[in-house]
Request: fold
Amino acid sequence: MKGSKLTFANALMIAMLSSCSQRIMDFTLISTKNVDLSKISSYTKGEKRVTGEDRCFYIYTIPTRIVSIKTAIDKTIEATPGCVALVDGVVSTKFWSIILIGKGGYVVEGTPVIEKSTKTGFIPSKYNHCTLDKDGKIQITAISEAEYEAKSKQIK
Reply:
């Protein structure tokens, strides 16, 4: 009798504590942004993979908000400055629950495609000097800390 109660309690505990992960799709190239393919030569592949997610809590199996794959892709793309798309990636769902509360949604992972030729694609160094040329284009130059301090004193 004691053994069956213990087995029932273990089975109940396992049923109450659960998690699940399911791979939805793999992709070669994905984006929710407008990507100009005529500028493909100015795009570079990022060095590290990035991850983004759109997840929410569940209470009694009712979600606290609507989750979407598009939002998860947007968050992944926006995690890298100048990123316009992702390559070689995976979209999956992840879910966990403890008794009556859980969390679930979409997770997107991929390698960023970065457009280096635009000002949004510029990844600044710690110290930069910005100027505006005659055509209205911004010129950004990396400078040393000493140069930065000298320029700061000139402005003050």
Summary: The mean pLDDT is 84. The CA atoms of residues 26 and 90 lie 4 Å apart. The two ends are 83 Å apart (CA to CA).
